[in-house]
Write a structure and sequence with these properties.
The chain is built from 1 helix and no strands. The relative contact order is 0.04.
Length: about 100
């Protein structure tokens, strides 16, 4: 048994299938672009966090160095009283001071 092929029906079906395939392909491309944009945004935010951490770390180091410099400056005595301290390194907290009159 041989059936007659309706050419018009076949053409209509192929065009609808082509449209469906195009839409599916476009959807996949759009989804891929969306994921790419999302990942690039996440990378940018991660890089910003790293930069902020580096800046905060540098600020902490600077602050620590400043406080150490201030402490060193507070422990030093004027040069006109050399008998009070012979050497800054010899001074310790809770140490004894030798005062002679």
């Amino acid at each position: 048994m041989v059936r007659a092929i309706d050419v018009q029906q076949s053409i209509l079906q192929t065009t609808s299938l082509e449209k469906i395939q195009q839409i599916q392909q476009q959807h996949a491309d759009m989804q891929q672009r969306y994921y790419q944009l999302k990942l690039s945004e996440e990378d940018r935010l991660a890089q910003e966090k790293v930069n902020q951490f580096k800046e905060a770390d540098k600020a902490k180091i600077r602050k620590k160095e400043d406080s150490q410099d201030k402490r060193k400056g507070a422990n030093r005595h004027p040069p006109d009283h050399p008998e009070l301290l012979a050497d800054d390194e010899e001074v310790r907290e809770g140490g004894h001071i030798n005062i002679t009159i």
